[in-house]
Amino acid sequence: MFGKRSSEDQATPTPPVTPAVQAPVSPALTGDSLPHPAPASAVAPLVQSPAPVAPAPNMVPAASAHAAAAPTPASGQAKKSEEYYDIKTTIFGALIDTIDLAQLAKLDAEGAREEIRDIVNEIIAIKSVVMSIAEQEELLEDICNDVLGYGPLEPLLARDDIADIMVNGAESTFIEVEGKVQDTNIRFRDNAQLMNICQRIVSQVGRRVDESSPICDARLPDGSRVNVIAPPLAIDGPSLTIRKFKKDKLTLDKLVDFGSISPEGAKILSIIGRVRCNTLISGGTGSGKTTLLNCLTAFIDTDERVITCEDSAELQLQQPHVVRLETRPPNLEGEGEITMRDLVKNCLRMRPERIVVGEVRGSEAFDLLQAMNTGHDGSMGTLHSNSPREALSRLEAMITMGGFGLPSSTIREMIVSSIDVIVQASRMRDGSRRITHITEVIGMQGDIITTQDLFLYNLEGEDQNGNLVGRHMSTGIARPHFWDRARYYNEEKNLAAALDAADVMDLDTGV
Ligand SMILES: Nc1ncnc2c1ncn2[C@@H]1O[C@H](COP(=O)(O)OP(=O)(O)O)[C@@H](O)[C@H]1O
Ligand SMILES: [Mg+2]
Predict the structure, then answer these.
(1) Which of 431, 502, 507, 423 has its CA nearest to residue 462?
(2) What separation in Å is there between the alpha carbon of 425 and the centre of ligand 1?
(3) Could you read off the pLDDT of 168-211 as tens digits, one per residue?
(4) pTM of the model
(5) Which atom of ligand 1 is nearest to the CA of 249?
């Protein structure tokens, strides 16, 4: 069992309101745990002191950043009784009074769990709480999640099938599974507890979120991307959005299995990746852009030097010669920001053969196009837009707004001479993700950029379950614009074979 804790362990990751308070504070009231100076083996009664606690979060030691939260409602799917929460509150209070969180943090997850299990069992015995074994196990799980992890979020974080977790205040949490958004029974005790969990997450990357800086991006240790927006900006309580990191990234073969692309379409994409077409992947939020970019990078040769620039490292390139770069937001004083543009510009001094930009959002578009134009063939990036044509106009808008003072005709020419292919990803209304266009940028007619679709997803209807039915079809173009490039890389036979094998759309009827 753990001994009494020392005072420097008492910092908790809450917004700075007052200096760290040394008085024991009830976790039930604040959502935090502060040690009650009880002897290690004693089980102290719950102390109901409402004092707020608040050191600067970037001073939070790792130990307490991971420790402590208040009893939480419903971390499973079934709603639990009031009695359960009362018991949990009592036991949780006693536990927090007893353990030394700093010591606990030194143990590995299993060890810490074992330690908590022993103490909780002892508390249950001392307090003569009547519980079945199953209830005890459930209680123990809940308590461990609160003390060691992210409270009610833990069961969601543990699931691999969830793509996004969206917490809209303490009362409402949605998840996205298989492309569909669903409600859950996950509830936080109150907004203060939710805010504490948000704070704990962002303090791990040295940030803080409170009224004075209510917007914050962070990352979980597993690589999941996190955004927090807190009151007063979020009117109904802190809003927490997590894009879960998928360890096993999807491959192009898997996308074929899911029907996201036909085998012929996948073959064409692989050739595009291999023969160094400069490629933009366009799509809405969560449409599968990053996934697709990752798939395309699989066809980069192992001897190429690739530099990736991302806001939050998600790509998993398998090649041996990869340099991964990540942007940095400003620190608490608003200094030290490294933007995507800084990274892309710096990339050019690093002798890259290809540059891969996770998401093009702003003036870095100019540098990426320049890179594509100056011998870094096969560079790639994603961009947020709903169609290949819109992607082109967004790209132009990004460069215009970057303040380079270029006339629009020059920007368009630059786009035409840089981008070879745009691949469009979409999340359809039935939740499925599909590649809807493989489109080439081929030239200018007057001051309009001309494009040609090679491959399209043709929607044919809906089955009785409401799932969309359709086919990927070639538009009948036998010699894509990148034919010569394919020939240069000895891929023209494969390209011709893939185009021949595909269903061909009748362009008059669109079927
Ligand atoms: N073709 C697909 N089929 C099924 N799930 C997919 C597909 N593409 C992506 N996903 C899943 O969708 C989620 C969002 O994908 P991501 O590539 O991060 O989207 P974006 O970068 O467009 O926001 C991830 O969980 C990913 O695994
Ligand atoms: Mg993405």
Answers:
(1) 431
(2) 9
(3) 999 999 999 988 899 999 888 889 889 989 988 888 877 888 88
(4) 0.75
(5) 27
